[in-house]
Model the fold of this input.
Amino acid sequence: RRVLLLGEGNFSFAASLCGATGTHVVATCYESEEEVSGLERAVESIQRLRERGAEIVFSVDCTKLKDYFLPEKREFDCIYFNFPHCGKKAGVVKNRELLAHFFHSSAEVLAEEGEIHVALCNGQGGTPADQPRREWHNSWQIVAVAAGAGFILSNVHPFKAETIDGYKCTGYRSQDKSFRVEGALNHIFTRSMPLPYFKPMICEIALESQKVSFQVPQVLVDKINRGFLELNSNHPVRIIKEKLTAELSQAFPLQNIDCCHSLLHQGHLSEICHSNLFWISLSPEETPSTEEMSHGLANTVLFSHVDRCRDPDKNGWVDAQEGCCISKQYYLRPSLLPCAQAIIQRGAFLPGTLLVLSGPVFRKCLIAPHSMPVFHEMIFVCAVNRGTENSCIQTLVNSIKTNIYSLHQIVSGFKLSISLQEATSFDTAELNDFAAFESQLSKIEYFIHMEIDTSGSCEKGSCVGVIRKAHDELVSSEVVVVFASLNLDLLAMLICGIADWRMLWTSDRRFLHQFPRGELKLFKSFSLYPPSYEHDVSFWIPNGEQFDELAFHTIARWVSGEMVVSIQLMDSFQHPQTGQKSLCYRLTFQSCDKALTRQEVAEMQQLFRKEINQCLRVTLR
Done:
């Protein structure tokens, strides 16, 4: 390993590292050799380094690192910078600037999977790891500064100077004096994947015995055909699916329905709010060419579903602006329940056999921590003789609970509580988006509810599954069909301690590396304390029109690439003379896995303003 040390002062830290097996040390300082030689312990440390084969370079400016090393010697595996400081009485702004230039310079000499270690005095970093924590404006804002050069904070731990043999901190206000190192922290940064730019995407599928192509809604471009449930996948969603299937096969004869369930549905969903669906038009005139898409000329198609509403007097969908009927309207499947019901209607089942279906489903939803526009659903279907359905439900739920308990105990020592709650006794105000949408599909008998007790404090639980019985028209009078639906993504989050649903969809390899060979483990985030940025937007709503908040959230999702984590209504105002209504919303931007800068967020906000003006016809203020 090639290790670069910056701002060494008396070189005592470098001397303590030198000699480690397999490590080549390059130690540098900002001062000249003559200036350093007068510092306590410097001469003996330099002698020790040279005896052990280390390189020593004087007068190195940490903001211009590539100038000091030949191209073939620029890839360092680790860069250390302990207690950086501009010198004398420089304030926080100047020290932030120093760090910003340092990170940009380090990016040019760091190996692709290398690390940057920056030790700061307690409070300087401005992260929750500092105790006590300084006010943000009075800190060095190290995570936000590092993001500007494409780095994320992947670890932070105490800097224990007393455990480093021979180390003596120096350089306080450019003097041979020590910084206050009590409570100091070592911040470890790694490279972030760049923010993605998703081009419009055409998806080709088999539909009604022929191949058709459709344009994927922009908000879903990075989530179509990810293959999380395929045989060679080690994604936690698939691991949980396989474990549940194996457990249930002990209680039921089991049959996996592996046939491809169509991504597109067409039909009547009387109980569902149609604005929750991702509508797809297959009309030839509505489908842009690949050339048009590559030039970004397909924006009106991307959000064509936003401006459409159902006309009950016509066999089709009406464009709200043009009033024209649109042919061949389909929607991305919001549930696998219709697929399961179709199997039952065809009579393609054996009584007592448990059928298993799984796959991604798509639903528009408001932005919230556990609200997912796409997730992996797992449905169990069992036909039993009338009068035995309650026993079937109990056996099914007990098997699911036993397996989830077992998985959770392997992964975490926190206390887990799983309960089966009757739908009639469940407070609808407590329903998460998953349960609320399931309630629209058909009548629910029970909710499967999970709560995790962490450090003696019980987190708010989540509904992770529902139990239904078949409608009478689907089955004969002697048979009752039981349906159980599980949200595999929510289960993975709760079992593995994944706080943000977006992490399940990251393309960063560090996520899947934590689940080798199909093993579930407690997830450890590789991006700690990511910076967040707030922007407000105010606008007038056209008189006589109802504001489509769901479309507002959906636009925020796609223009930001899912970087918006919160949208709050801050103010509502109605003009006393015109009666026109004005709304003010606050958007909070934050990434869970990538470096995100203030400039990038500002560009997202500008694009968002443009899109809501065009798509929702609001007048910006």
